[in-house]
Amino acid sequence: MRVLFTVLAVPLLLATPASADDDWAPPVTDPVVRKECGVCHMAFQPAFLPARSWRLMMGNLQDHFGDDASLPADTVRHIAAYHEANAGDVISRGVGRKFLRRVAATEAPQRITELPKFVSEHRFPDHVWKRPDVLTKSNCVACHPAAERGDYED
Amino acid sequence: MKVLPPFLPPFLPPFLIATVVLSTAALANPARDALLADYASQAQAADARFAGFSADRGETLFRTRWAGGDERTPACTACHTDDPRKQGRNAKTGRGIDPVAVSVEPKRFTDRDDVEKQFGRDCPSVLGRDCTALEKGDYITFMKGQ
User: Fold this and answer.
1) A67–B117 CB contact, under 8 Å
2) Could you tell me if B117 lies within 8 Å of chain A, comparing CB atoms?
3) What is the CA angle B36-B57-B145, rounded to 5?
């Protein structure tokens, strides 16, 4: 099966040399988003999730993956609007197109690290994930030093 | 009887004066002082025996292993390291944290909303409860001297 896949995949890969775009996400430029999201973790590019996911997340900041990340209502609205306008299903290029390909329209995934495409591209042994510099799967910059600039090629 | 003149240096080196003036200016900040004054009146209202903030109590707060909240953050030092002058790291996300010491980061504790937001997140995470105004003032007073 693997051989078959390889045989089929090689010509496909050769035919699409511009696949680097798949590892690129428009970087976060909004200063409020950079500050408020970035104070606790990298401000993940909105392209990684569809607008419906961000809407759900921004409506539930008091339980943000187990932490209370509440913000004033006007700040929440601002961050939500930016994320929804730049969401993966809205801009539909780069990682947005790639990561959301296998996400059902009825789902609003919350963890980028659980998207099928993330999982299939991050099959590493446990000891890699447990490295002290990695700490957690959402720590993109541990392995993608240019992640903050939207570059996930490595 | 001969009276010895008190020792007076003929002059203070200008660079020394400049150093003293600059370092005082860097640490004194109207916004931070106003915030501390607010915490002081809250602490006074909570306990009439309040007699000012203490850097020593602030340091104890900073170093105590509370283990009252999230297991990944048993103490302030879990993220801020044992040395507040050093770069820290969020123990949950791996995100870098600028030093808390005012001598290294003069903008620390100068934005009321940010300070309140951060105490509001970190105290439950470390102590398992909100911090009192006394604790917040002690903490800032400790960091002002660091």
Assistant:
1) no
2) yes
3) 60
User: Mean pLDDT of all residues in chain B?
Assistant: 89
- How much is the pTM? 0.83
Asked whether the predicted pLDDT for residue A15 surpasses 80, the reply is: no
Closest chain B C-alpha to A12 CA, distance in angstroms: 37
Asked if B32 and B110 count as a contact pair (C-beta separation under 8 A), the reply is yes
Amino acid at residue number A16:
T
State pLDDT tens for residues A19-54: 557 889 999 999 999 999 999 999 999 999 999 999
Q: Could you give the CA distance from residue A111 to residue A109 in angstroms, rounded to a whole number? A: 6
| B30 three-class SS | helix
| H, E, C per residue of chain A | CHHHHHHHHHHHHHHCHHHHHHHECCCCCCHHHHHHHHCCCCCCCHHHCCHHHHHHHHCCHHHECCECCCCCHHHHHHHHHHHHHCCHHHHCCCHHHHHCCCCCCCCCCCCHHHCHHHHHHCCCCHHHHCCCCCCCCCCHHHCCCCHHHCECCC
Amino acid at B128: G
pLDDT digit string, tens, across residues A110-138: 999 999 999 999 999 999 999 999 999 99
Interatomic CA distance for residues B45 and B133, integer angstroms: 10
Judged by CB atoms closer than 8 Å, whether chains meet at B95 and A69 is answered as no
Task: Extract the tokens encoding A46.
Answer: 């909105």
Q: Name which residue leads in pLDDT, B87 or B14.
A: B87
Measured in angstroms, the CA of B146 and the nearest CA of chain A are apart by 22
- Cβ neighbourhood burial of B95 (10 Å; 0-12, 13-18, 19+): buried
pLDDT class of A96 with cuts at 50, 70, 90: confident
Nearest CA in chain B to A134: B94
CB A112 within 8 A of CB A49: yes
